[in-house]
Design goal:
It contains 17 helices and no strands. The chain is mainly α.
Length: 338
């Protein structure tokens, strides 16, 4: 039981990165060098995401349009509504930047790799999960900035401004489209080296986290973030995850989906992508007072919560379907930092 809830290796690496940034933050010229490196790494990350997406999988999965609409509604409608509903508690328990971070989590697209992995472990509709999660990320490139503008406008964040959307399109969508167009030439190479290319995901996130926490430390992150506010962030993230998982489970059953489809809806509709979220935060919150450190803390906490909870839920689904061999598969082998 304890092994199920222990942090995954990437989360431990993230914590080490935060510690390094707290002890040895980059400043001045070094900070500018890291800023250029992260922009280049983010472009490469989304180029590879585009190259990984097979067009045949898109066409095969499009038939499950009801399932995809349900997942998108959970990701981009239910989550933001819950974020708005929890704002009064956030104002009372969280610092302003942690509250912004929680609201930002609610606007993000779903994960890709872990949604597919958990759906597979639980015995769900894997092909539909591939299309739903990929579609969520693609739509999120445009929709997330608009939702940020709607949810965070009262906090002075203009995420939905034409400039913010243009920056997201230029820095994220354009590399993604170019990568997908290049798949006909590099698709075989990308598919053969997926585990190695996963290092680009993880490396990009670590670069952005180091840069963000360095800037936040210089601005007084830990001095301005009480421990009780961090515990409250954990509680709010946990409540968000629990409410959405219950809503997707009950809602998909009420809508008459088959068991395999319900599993895909639960795992694709309840997750938020750190691989997309941290690069988006760097673009959308550039120049926000205090830096990105506290803004991405809720996302980092939510990331670990969703892995721990979904590991247990996926194995429970598998056990209920009498598939112990699949249930015992090590989740760490199939997850990437998304």
């Amino acid at each position: 039981m304890l092994r199920r809830f222990r942090p995954d290796n990437f989360t431990l690496t993230l914590l080490v990165t935060v510690l390094i940034a707290s002890l040895w933050p980059c400043r001045n010229d070094a900070a500018r060098v890291f800023d250029h490196l992260t922009h280049a790494a983010i472009a490469l990350l989304f180029f590879l995401h585009g190259a990984k997406l097979p067009r045949a999988a898109i066409m095969q999965g499009m038939a499950h349009w009801r399932l995809h609409l349900t997942v998108l509604a959970s990701t981009f409608v239910l989550f933001p509504l819950l974020g708005l509903a929890l704002q009064p508690f956030g104002h009372a328990l969280l610092t302003p930047q942690l509250l912004l971070g929680v609201l930002f989590v609610c606007t993000l697209p779903s994960t890709v790799q872990s949604s597919i992995a958990f759906t597979s472990i639980a015995g769900g509709n894997v092909s539909a999960a591939v299309v739903s999660a990929s579609m969520s990320n693609l739509i999120g490139i445009v929709l997330t900035p608009l939702l940020v503008g709607l949810l965070l406008a009262q906090h002075g964040i203009a995420g939905g401004s034409p400039r913010a959307v243009l920056d997201i399109v230029r820095q994220l969508l354009l590399p993604f489209v170019l990568g997908h167009l290049a798949r006909r030439w590099i698709g075989g190479l990308v598919d053969r080296h997926r585990p190695s290319l996963g290092m680009v995901d993880r490396g990009t996130i670590l670069l952005v986290v180091y840069s963000a926490f360095s800037a936040a430390l210089v601005a007084g992150l830990w001095r301005n973030t009480p421990p009780l506010a961090l515990l409250a962030t954990l509680a709010v993230d946990g409540l968000l995850l629990a409410l959405v998982m219950l809503a997707t489970s009950w809602g998909s059953r009420w809508l008459g989906f088959a068991r395999e489809d319900r599993i895909a809806i639960v795992f694709c509709g309840s997750k938020k992508s750190m691989a997309s979220g941290i690069p988006m935060a760097k673009i959308l919150f550039a120049g926000v007072p205090g830096g990105l450190g506290a803004l991405v803390l809720p996302l980092m906490i939510f990331h670990q919560l969703q892995l721990m909870v979904c590991t247990v839920v996926a194995r429970r689904y598998a056990e209920n379907a009498a598939a112990p061999a699949m249930a015992s598969a090590p989740v760490e082998d199939v997850l990437e930092a998304d």
